[in-house]
Amino acid sequence: MARGMTYLFALILLSIILFLILTRIFETEAPAIAFLLSMVVSHFILEKNEWVIDTLIALKN
Fold this sequence. Notes:
- 89% of the residues lie in helices and 0% in strands.
- It has helices at 2-26, 31-48, 50-60.
């Protein structure tokens, strides 16, 4: 349960950061699509780098 909540928190936080970077650089006209793509990319990043989730769980304890 803790791992899932940590993953969700990290996913949302990373998605927002990527979304802000994307909208600042490319000045997108469709923010909903940009956020969706940011969330997909964030999922792939967190999936490949599981140490991020493990580190956040270790910091919590």
